[in-house]
Amino acid sequence: LKPGSARLYEMLYDAYGSQHWWPAADRFEIMAGALLVQRTAWRNAESALTALRDRELLSPEQLAVADTRQIESSIRSAGFFRSKARRLQGLAGFIVGAGGIERLDAKPTPELRQLLLALDGVGEETASAILLYAFDRPVVVIDAYLRRLIQRLSAAGKPPPDDAIAAWVVAEIDDVPRLNELHALVVEHGKQVCAKLPRCRHCAVRDVCRWGYATP
DNA sequence: CACCAGGGTGGTT
DNA sequence: AACCACCATGGT
After folding, report:
1. Cβ atoms of A81 and A67 closer than 8 Å
2. pLDDT score of A201
3. CA–C1' span, A120 to B12, in Å?
4. I need a labelling partner for A18 at 20 to 30 A (CA). Which of A25, A109, A185, A186 fits?
């Protein structure tokens, strides 16, 4: 798959429109949401955020000193609530210790990424999502949906490594607003399209051929 | 009932 | 490096 051989952003935006993920929300809330939504439907992560907000726990300062069991009971709806409560508190402590989000925002992207990756529960994808959505850095969020999409569009043998995918995407778009929208669009598309293509025989999705995927 | 959801971690081959 | 089980709730 060569750079510029497909216009991924255009195709997705035309098909699904604006997804308005995290529109002007609180920065810490975005970071907490990024942890809570892992392997979970957004609806359930959102209700966990609401519960935290209702109990006045949705800030670094309050979360850092809160009773862990109270956090757990607030976020049960998001699943994995014991590990996620621990990780949320770790994130909160990190931010407080760093002197706040504004202080962190002064750091260059590579350094900030390393700091985030050092946290429990923050891997490559979550670090990228936080950099993009909470810190407005021009970062490509690479998830399973994007890997699958790229592989289907490329029709190649072995899947390209993540850094190649990132380079390919950046060749088309490199600005924060569209990188932000792209990740949301990729997720929406990934949920719409049958995961078992081209093997799936009873796929209800009709826009398959348009995306260059093999017909079921 | 099975399967999936805006992953990450620790252990085993 | 490539797998694996595990984490756990809520919706379809």
Report:
1. no
2. 46
3. 22
4. A109
The span from the CA of A74 to the CA of A70, in Å, is 6
Identity of the residue numbered A7: R
A8-16 and A162-172 helices cross at what angle (nearest 10)?
Answer: 80
CA of residue A123 to C1' of nucleotide B9, angstroms: 10
Q: Which candidate, A198, A186, A139, A170, places its Cα nearest to that of A11? A: A186
Crossing angle of the two packed helices A124-133 and A109-117, in degrees rounded to 10? 130
DSSP strands (E only) in A67-170: none
Tokens of residue A144, six digits = 């399973």
> Which residue ranges have CB below 7 A from strand C?
A 39-41, 43-44, 76-77, 79-84
C-alpha dist (Å) from residue A214 to A145, A186, A194, A198, A210: 17, 19, 12, 6, 10
pLDDT of residue A100: 98
Query: How far is the C-alpha of A141 from the C-alpha of A87, rounded, in Å?
Result: 21
* Residue A195 CB neighbours (<10 A): 12
Query: What is the per-residue pLDDT across A183-194, written as a single tens digit (0 to 9) for each?
Result: 999 999 888 876
CA A91 – CA A32 distance, rounded (Å): 8
| Alpha-carbon gap, residue A33 to A10, rounded angstroms | 27
Rounded CA–C1' distance between A78 and C10, in angstroms: 8
